[in-house]
Specification:
mainly alpha; 6 helices; 81% helix; elongated
């Protein structure tokens, strides 16, 4: 219990203010531009299943899509988020929080449209 309280206090101490992020970013501009392009690529990859969610929305069913790829992506993202919190890396915390939120959204929508198909099919 004491360990979890100290880790919560450590999380609260992570400074992700805009001025802090700007100072981190401008320290080594060339390297940070490379990292930014990598982060944008990661965001695009994380967001790519939105086309599947749109397909599920149009059809009102997730057809034969399986939950396995979404579970297999949320687990490593959660572990990376835990690591980012451990090392107090603001950039990684932001990216992995976004990844966990999006993967949770995809999994929720998959379950929603699977149950919608099951409920409408049994009527």
């Amino acid at each position: 219990m004491i360990d979890s309280l100290s880790s919560l206090q450590d999380i609260a101490e992570v400074d992700i203010s805009p001025s802090r992020l700007l100072s981190i970013y401008s320290t080594n501009l060339l390297w940070n531009l490379f990292l930014t392009s990598t982060a944008l690529h990661a965001i695009a990859l994380i967001t790519s299943p939105l086309q599947a969610v749109y397909k599920w929305y149009r059809r009102q069913s997730s057809d034969s899509d399986t939950f396995l790829p979404y579970v297999c992506t949320i687990i490593p993202s959660s572990l990376w988020l835990r690591y980012a919190l451990f090392i107090h890396d603001a950039k990684l915390i932001i990216l992995q929080t976004y990844a966990v939120a999006m993967h949770s959204f995809f999994l929720t929508m998959l379950i929603y449209y699977k149950t919608k198909k099951v409920c409408s099919g049994s009527v």
